Amino acid sequence: MTSPAGSDLGGRVAAVLAASYGLEVRTITQLPIGQGTVNFRVACDDGLEAFVKNYPAGTDLGAEREAIGLSTLAVEAGIPGAQVLPNEKGKVIDASGELPVSVWEWMPGRVETRLSATQMTAAGDALGRIHALFAPLPTGPDPDAAVQAWRTPDVDGLAATIDKLLKIIAGRVRDGVADTFDVEAQRTLLERRSMLDRVPGLLDDLPEKLTVQVLHGDYSPVNLLFEGETLSAVLDYRPPNPPFLLSYDLGRMAFYPNTVADDPGWADSAATFIRAYRDAHSAVPAVDVRACGRVALLQLLTSLYGVKQHYLKPGLFQADLDEFWLLRHHTAGVLLAQLAETDDLLAEPAN
Questions:
Q1: What are phi and psi of 25, to 5 degrees?
Q2: 162: which residues sit within 8 A by CB, 6+ positions away?
Q3: Are 51 and 105 in contact (CB under 8 A)?
Q4: Domain Aminoglycoside phosphotransferase, which positions (predicted)?
Q5: Domains of the chain
Q6: What is the gyration radius of the CA atoms in the chain, in angstroms?
Q7: pLDDT higher for 47 or 7?
Q8: What is the pLDDT of residues 217-246, one digit of tens each?
Q9: Residue 3 and residue 214: Cα distance in Å, rounded?
Q10: 348 pLDDT tier (thresholds 50, 70, 90)
Q11: Against a cut of 0.85, is the pTM above it?
């Protein structure tokens, strides 16, 4: 059995699989992906290949079980995805020891950070089907609570956090230890601070009533697998509570940072995705489609994800977060500069 060099975590996970799943592991390899779980690819003596998530201490396992329920519902409805493999007691998460895990069938395909028109069509179709499937699901006693909190961001608090990060960077410059990322972080944080002035007006432009429902919650290219042009799996559904804006799932994928930052034809890609989504989910209110660009932009502007971790609490793969911060910030600037064009794109009829 092989496991990550310098770590016994792989071996400990393998022991859980043997004790709770009856799986004899031949090889186990930690994968350099994911920020919320530690992930492994496993090959077993019986020929089974599996994807294993290890949940860190403090994870809400009840919420993760609900997320697995959404994934199962989608797969049963014909949306491509991985089946969870229960342990010998029928539990979708094994929490019998100190290393909680879930085990999934290994799915073929690869992540594509820049999607072709055919792939964007497949992605739009899948999200439309997911939203239509999840629309009737219960949303709890106060479905608008998370949305109202999102609509009232603490802009002053965001500015104060930016100032804190800039102070840390200034100290690194003063001490002669600043690196290339410090330079880029300083530039982008100063730009972001000035962009915060736009947030109140953008929020005021949003319609008061937008659809709130259970979502995928993390629909993006990194959670889609393709075999060539064919979508082979939608992965990593997030817990259903709290429900959130349908426009969030839609805008996050249509205007994903990798697409906007790296593809000169990002507007055409977004239009292709939106068209396929509306074809698959004809009941979606037009107001939600029209708002998704503004929602995506606001989500970017009011988040310091990536750069905040760099200076305050590094993530599992911080280099990836550093790059993602730069892409997200660039995308926010592009969407701000082309706000009218994006609005026009989203106002077009479905066909």
A1: -80, 130
A2: 189, 192, 193, 304
A3: yes
A4: 28-276
A5: 9-105 (3.30.200.20), 117-347 (3.90.1200.10)
A6: 21
A7: 47
A8: 999 999 999 999 999 999 999 999 999 999
A9: 37
A10: low
A11: yes
